[in-house]
Amino acid sequence: MKRQPRPIRGPKAYDSLPPRNRDTYGRALDGLNRMRRGKSIKRAAREAGTTPETMRRYVGEALEIRRGRTVAKRADRLYRRMSVLTPDGRREVGTRGSEAAKRIAAHWNAAEHYLATGDTKPLVKFKSKGVGGVELATRPSQVEKHWTRGEMDLDDIYVDR
User: Fold this and answer.
1) Whole-angstrom Cα distance, residue 141 to residue 126?
2) How far is CA 137 from CA 27, 35, 50, 99, 119, in A?
3) pTM score of the predicted model
């Protein structure tokens, strides 16, 4: 029987993972995100490049059984390393929980929306807000500067994946 890893709730636990396991953990988080968007654990795991068993092992505390089916809880307190766009550029931060991860993803989406349409309204929602102890870039000039530097790749929002 495989040893169950402890839930990853902080930087110490995350940093103690070997690089291969960090990648596995990242895929399990991706699968969890897919489950929150309505996919079954089997389909979410397949699309994330992992297995349901691995997801249960790494993000099991964010899962529950309802009427015989494994479903994702609405929120979790698992640790994630993510990239955020700050006034000074792209930066890695450690976040604890799915709510902070949602805020980071929404900020990236607002920045990309601004670049595509010129509409600053979504960015304004993040004024004076931060995540993981850092301020988020909200001025159009900041977003444009980081875009021209090539610092805005939404596919790389999660570190180590």
Assistant:
1) 15
2) 28, 30, 34, 19, 15
3) 0.84
